[in-house]
Amino acid sequence: MFESRANERKYEFEFIFRGNDGFFVLQSVSRTYFRNLHKIHLPFLLSHSVSFLKTGKAIVFLSLPTAVLEIKNLKVRISGKTILKNVHLTANNGEITGIVGRSGSGKSTLFRSILAVPELIQGYEIEGEIKWKGRDVREYSTKPIQPVFQDPFSFLSPYQTLGESLLEPLQVREGIFLSKKRKSEETDRILSYFERFHLKEEVLSKRTNQLSGGQLQRLSILRAILARPELILLDEPVTALDALVQAEIVSLIRNLNEKENISFLLVSHDLGLVKHLCKQVFLLEQGEVVESGEASEVFTRPKTEFTKELIASRNLKDI
Asked: Which residues, at least 6 apart from 123, have a Cβ–Cβ distance to it below 8 Å?
């Protein structure tokens, strides 16, 4: 008999036979998470539930997503003005989570609050919880979270070669003075990503003013990955890029998520991008989360008037 593992829970579902293709379909599924599990092949049911043929029900064990970032009742004031209020948000391990909002909705403030870098949140009055795997994110000396900003020039120094910039994550971990051996090993690691990132080795000797915006954004993502994070925060990562380069960056993010199980938290005003990339989404308006859930659910069956109006204004049905 099939047994559950530590990260799994037992659920009982009722199935009915659909037709001649050998599939049975779920009935009366109330939990959003299970709606994508809409059909299961008969041999699976027979192998996992001996009572299936008699009762039409099957007990199956399913892996549930694990929340790695949890934000509860977050309130942020800047110079006495409330920017965020009562924000609740979770990001699951191995998923791409989206935060959508118009300009002035509080997205950037939320982004900076999650990073918890002192110079970025100077003057912020923060209440509530921002936890990474149950621990206050501000307690980490080496952050498990790395950012990629909209403007790569804010992340890559114009006074260094790109090779020097890409070595910095290792210097943060091991010290500024690296041996020739460690530099060589890390350079080999950097180059191992280049084909996937559509980069050539010659960029290592160049500076930021010698590369295109698309190249710099790819290098920003690579620099974040080299720090070995568990979650990457993306702040409008494709806004300033042309359509072809946008598609390349989106493909890269999806590839990294699927092949290396890197989690992403994507902050964007682009509903089409979030619908295309994200598993779950949180809609932010005037500092509050007004709707959240699986992206496929939120964008096809929105509950709030705000979400409906936002989707209609972006012609999201055509994306």
From this structure: 78, 79
Residue 255 to residue 232: CA distance in whole angstroms: 14
- Single-letter amino acid, residue 21: D
157-168: pLDDT as tens digits: 888 999 999 988
pLDDT bracket for residue 188 (50, 70, 90): very high
- Whole-number Å distance between alpha carbons of 4 and 30: 22
Structure tokens belonging to residue 202: 């010659």
Task: State the Cα–Cα distance between residues 231 and 223, nearest whole angstrom.
Answer: 13
Residue 264, amino acid: F
> Is the Cβ–Cβ distance between 177 and 169 less than 8 Å?
no
Element (H, E) at 263: strand 263-268
Contact 235, 264 (CB under 8 A): no
Q: Measured between alpha carbons, how far is 233 from 224 in angstroms, rounded to an integer? A: 9
From-to residues of CATH 3.40.50.300 in the chain: 66-144+229-319
Q: Residue 315: left (phi > 0), alpha (psi -120 to 50), or beta?
A: left
Q: Does domain 66-144+229-319 have CATH number 2.40.50.140?
A: no
Name the nearest CA neighbour of 9 among 41, 31, 26, 40: 31
CA nearest neighbour of 237 among 109, 84, 98: 98
pTM of the model: 0.76
- 231 vs 17, higher pLDDT: 231
CB-based contact 295:96 (threshold 8 Å): no
Q: 270: pLDDT confidence band, cut at 50, 70 and 90?
A: confident
> What letter would DSSP give residue 109?
H
Whole-number pLDDT of residue 238: 83
Please enumerate in sequence order all residues whose Cβ is within 8 A of that of 149, keeping only pairs 6 or more positions apart, or say none.
155, 220, 235
Amino acid letter, 84? L
pLDDT of residue 11: 46
Average pLDDT score over residue span 125-152: 87
